[in-house]
Amino acid sequence: MNPAVVGIRMWCELDAAGSPTAGSPPEPVPAPTQTWDPAATPGLAPGPAQYPAGRGGAASGLSFSVHEFAELSDGREILLLDDRGWGMSGGGRTPEEHLSQLTIEEIERGVYNVLLPDWADADHPLPPDLAAVEGSGGAQDWDMLVERLRAFGVTTTPAELRSVPRRVDLGDRLRERLAAAAD
Prior knowledge:
This protein is of the alpha+beta class. The chain has six helices and four strands, in the order βββαααααβα.
């Protein structure tokens, strides 16, 4: 039986220089009756990975990583995108000063922004149906996501993907640093 997509999860974490687990999302959840071997399951969320030298953790800035997953009815998650993120720097502020001025809503908007279709720009604006949901994470390249899911045996349509719940989860490091910056 073909599992259904029951949700879209967007995971955001702070990168940290020198940390072998910087930006690594939690391990995917295997189906209840399966044992999971990450090496035998390409495309599911990877384990901790070393980031290239110089990425993230700059003394005066912040770097955020974003991963997007499809949550399936059988309990698995399929990694859809893992090459997104953004950075903040400047103004002579420390990372904690940047964080103290950020709200969770602003971080969510940053997540939604980096998930916009790669083809969208000033010369190629979003079509009206996607522009209307840009602020809620609904403006994505749904056709590309359907193709990625199809490669894992999941049959769905762009309309079905647009209709499932979407949520943004903040990584442990980001939540801890936001709490510390607010104190």
